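Transcriptional regulator
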Amino acid sequence: MEPMHRIRVLLVDDEPHILQFLELGLQNEGFEVHTASNGASAIVEAISFEPHVIVLDVMMPGMDGLAVCKQLKEENRDVAIIMLTAKDEIEDRVKGLMIGADDYMVKPFSFEELLARIQARLRNQFPSLLGEIRLGPFTIDDRKTEIVYHGEALELSPTEYKLLKLLVTKHGSVMSKSNILNIVWDYDFGGEDNIVEVYIRSLREKLGDKEHRVIRTLRGAGYRVDLP
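Structure:
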């Protein structure tokens, strides 16, 4: 698995052995992990640590997980919360999801399943943290240096990858040839600016963009990608 040093996970459970087991496992996977053993400390830790994902036990003395989930989601709707419970009851799951939980797991569970659910939440809510950006029909994956268009991976040279990534991430904005040269070929490029036209033509062929509807040419200005 790729290192995930930027991804923060908060574990909240009143059972020390569970916290220790999950903390060690997630740290070994490359996550930055903090723990809390009760609801009140979970609130404090979430404010200071700003986790991307919270694995939150429901059944805790004092402030239970449902109350913690409700408060945290009111303060930060973006945080992904996976609820843990020993109860296998539909009512509990529904209540947790209704107050904002993003996923639900019933104890006992395997570490592999929890890891898969954490990764699913990250792909859904924080794709850029995994080196993956989804923009319209494009998926840009810096880990693989790969761009997928309408579900098909494009065969791109390193320079084509940099150029298409630039145009897609700057979608809606016109990129002049000089800007493209400065960013893709860097400021030391001493060739002719028609190299940009050559690469744009190649990208259009690989995108099946015969009518130039994906990469548009604005005469005298440059190129622009418009996404739905």
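The first helix runs from residue 16 to 28.
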